[in-house]
Amino acid sequence: MNVRRHYISTAALAAVTALGLGTLTACSSDSAAAGNTDKFDVVASFYPMAFLAEQIGGEHVSVTSLTEPGQEPHDLEISAKQTAQLEESDAALYLKGLQPTVDEAIGQSPVKTKIDAATLTSLEEHGTEVGGHEEEHSEEEHSEEGHAEEGHAEEEHGHEHEHEGGKDPHIWLDPVKYAEVAEGVGKAFEKADPDHAADYEKNTAALVGKLNDLDEKFETGLADKKTDVFITTHAAFGYLAERYGLTEEAISGLDPETEPSGARVRELQEMAKADGVTTVFYETLVSDRTAKTLAGDTGLKTDVLDPIEGITDASRGDDYFQVMEANLKALQTALGTK
After folding, report:
1. Alpha carbons 118 and 95: distance in angstroms, whole number
2. Rounded CA gap, 264 and 98, in Å?
3. Are the C-beta atoms of residues 325 and 217 closer than 8 Å to each other?
4. What is the three-class DSSP state of 142?
């Protein structure tokens, strides 16, 4: 029995209740002006938030994404035009702590409905080493089952989009956590735009169902493998690693383009040999230089593991689900699944 699915709704609904007036957002790669339509106008901070809004809002929403396709979300500087769009919108959906300029702009904006996706699920502190055991992301289950933090590095190594309080914001890369956020966003939309509440509820249920199916694909697809360890340039996949009993080793954790230290390279060389690691993963939106540096020193292959912070022509898919399935295939190859 997969107990994870039993608390998706509970966590999301509790968060929305605490939220009061929440709101949603949709996925749009264009820059259509927000606030100038007869629909529910939503400003989304970056792709994973925009995707939720589009999927849940459907035909009733008009969405503007503050982060353009191919732009690093954490490098975003809000323009005067975007500030004006935000002020004219009905709602803003963002992930507080990921993009400081967005946090500031939304905090100062008179937009009626604001929703912070980070309040709709639990966040954890992650370092350059994350995972090593199967765990359910529920504080209640942690206390009842006594899961130890065996796979966490003894020292916390922050990285460039570390959430407030040292928490890892990459919740969308865990389908279960993303489903929790989706449910919270759906409930918030129902409250903010009650005329279309029935459609939002239906669309949310459909999206959560697809995310549960994706969770099943990852769980089944990664069940039988030669190694549990994978190396990334960017410490973005901690939640995914924990969800499916893997261990992520990040080269730097601070910046995907930073050259690894000699000590870290030696550590990863020894780990790769001991654990049968075959591949160093890099991202679509940043240079592969760091990955190739380590791979060249250790005789490993390189491949893409996409943190899905934006969709471009270089992405291995046209939307979140397609890219996540491409990530699954890349992990299966690297981990030697049967």
Report:
1. 6
2. 26
3. yes
4. helix
Contact between 258 and 294 under an 8 Å Cβ cutoff? The reply is no
> What is the reported pLDDT for 37?
67
Inform me whether the pLDDT recorded for 168 exceeds 50. yes
Q: Which residue has the tokens 């809002």?
A: 57
* Secondary structure class of 288 (helix, strand, coil): coil
Identity of residue 168: D
Which runs of E-coded beta strand occur in the chain? 40-44, 61-65, 91-94, 113-116, 129-131, 229-232, 247-250, 279-282, 301-304
Q: Are strands 279-282 and 301-304 parallel, antiparallel or unpaired?
A: parallel
Collapse the DSSP code of 177 into the 3-class scheme (helix H, G, I; strand E, B; otherwise coil) and give the result: helix
Q: Give me the DSSP letters along 93-138.
A: EE-TTT-HHHHHHHHH---SEEEEGGGGS---B--SEEESS-----
Residue with structure tokens 């937009």? Answer: 111
Q: Work out the average pLDDT over 208-236.
A: 95
**C-alpha–C-alpha distance, residues 123 and 47, integer Å:** 19
Provide φ and ψ at 41, rounded to 5°: -85, 125
Token pair 């000699």: residue: 262
214/54 Cα distance (integer angstroms): 19
Contact 134, 244 (CB under 8 A): yes
The pLDDT tens digits for 71-109 are 889 889 999 999 999 999 999 999 998 999 999 999 999
CA angle 250, 122, 319 (to 5 degrees): 65
- Strands 91-94, 247-250: pairing is unpaired
Count CB-CB contacts under 10 A for residue 108: 11
Tokens standing for residue 314: 């270089």
